[in-house]
Automatic annotation (TrEMBL):
Entry-linked Gene3D superfamilies: Spore Coat Polysaccharide Biosynthesis Protein SpsA, Chain A (3.90.550.10)
Highest classification ranks of the organism: Bacteria, Pseudomonadati, Pseudomonadota, Alphaproteobacteria, Rhodospirillales
GO molecular function, one term: transferase activity
The organism's place on the tree of life at top rank: Bacteria
Keywords noted in UniProt: Transferase
Protein name: Glycosyl transferase
Record flagged with keyword ATP-binding: no
Length: 335
């Protein structure tokens, strides 16, 4: 088993991520930390850990994006299975053992995923996430209809030779590179997900921009169109697809921009909630519901109501001392 862990300025979390791998119940692995030109203490931390565990190997790359970085790991890997984990996430102790045993039971499956527990920057547990087909019937239905197969990226384990056969990660899809690769792997065999939490997926960082959210929507839509085209025996080119999008009518572009911004605001609601910025979460949540009322309203209500309930519980436990129901640390104005 080869674990590919891309890193870029990951000093704040990478030690915990690596420790979660070296503590696995399945000990027969190599960990390839593929660094994308970090300028913080990431390199020093990895080198320190590699000196005491020869299963850890640091690969230093020029800054070129996540796909190019991960492709170096694919080429350098020594074992037939590749597991992915990001440098800010945490693997469950039996993650590798669970997936290897599943692969032994079902050798025709080319990619395995699993469930994930979202956590905040400081490790606070949030909600559980589960994506992807859990059995062959569900996988076959997705393939028959051309629907996009989604599996949580930091939970995937796939056959190295299959990934190389389909060309590895495509740098044009940075931001959705894992979903693009996953759907190309599905051309070679089943991709399934295990109904078990395999990673803790950290939600943190800066807000998602409108341009990034819009590009992700374009990429996901293209992947579905490509899946459908391949059912008919032909393929689609992504660059040609982008050119066609540029020629759309103004009204069509406006409609898609509104939908993209709704998706952006929902994702930022999740980030603000994880960072305990409840006021900001409420603001972006309202905008998400206004722009995407059908898809966003229930999810936003769930996130916000959980945040309010947690604050109320804090208020009860602490007797009301220093607890604000409307603002977290990140919401208070400076000065």
């Amino acid at each position: 088993m080869s674990i590919v862990m891309p890193s870029y300025n990951s000093a704040g979390f990478i030690r915990e991520a690596i420790d979660s791998i070296t503590a696995q119940t399945f000990p027969h692995f190599e960990l390839l930390v593929c660094d994308d030109g970090s300028t913080d203490d990431t390199i020093a931390i990895v080198e320190e850990l590699a000196r005491v565990d020869n299963r850890i190997r640091l690969i230093r790359n020029q800054h070129g994006g996540v796909s190019r970085n991960c492709n170096v790991g694919l080429r350098e890997a020594r074992f037939p299975w590749i597991a992915r984990l990001d440098a800010d996430d945490i693997a469950a102790p039996d993650r590798l053992e669970t997936q290897i045993k599943a692969a032994e039971r079902h050798p025709d499956v080319v990619c395995w995923g699993g469930g994930s527990r979202m956590i905040s920057r400081d490790g606070r547990k949030l909600r559980r996430a589960q994506l992807g087909p859990v059995d062959m019937a569900e996988f076959d239905e997705l393939r028959r209809t051309g629907k996009v197969i989604y599996i949580i990226g930091p939970t995937v384990m796939f056959k190295r030779d299959a990934a190389l056969r389909v060309g590895g990660y495509d740098p044009r899809f940075d931001g959705a590179e894992d979903i693009d690769l996953l759907n190309r792997l599905a051309d070679l065999g089943p991709t399934l997900t295990l109904p078990k939490i395999l990673t803790h997926y950290r939600i943190h960082g800066k807000s998602i921009t409108a341009s990034r959210s819009a590009r992700q929507r374009i990429m996901f839509a293209f992947i579905e169109e490509r899946n459908i085209a391949r059912l008919g025996g032909h393929d689609l080119d992504f660059d040609a697809h982008l050119a066609r999008l540029a020629a759309r009518s103004t009204l069509r572009r406006l409609h898609e921009d509104i939908a993209g911004r709704g998706s952006q605001y929902y994702k930022n609601t999740v980030i603000h909630f994880a960072e305990r910025r409840l006021l900001k979460a409420l603001g972006t949540g309202v905008l998400a519901v206004v722009l995407q009322p059908v898809s966003s309203s229930g999810r936003v209500y769930g996130w916000i109501s959980r945040g309010v309930r947690r604050r109320l519980n804090d208020l009860t436990r602490d007797g009301g001392r220093g607890i604000s129901l409307t603002a977290g640390e990140g919401d208070r104005p400076a000065g």
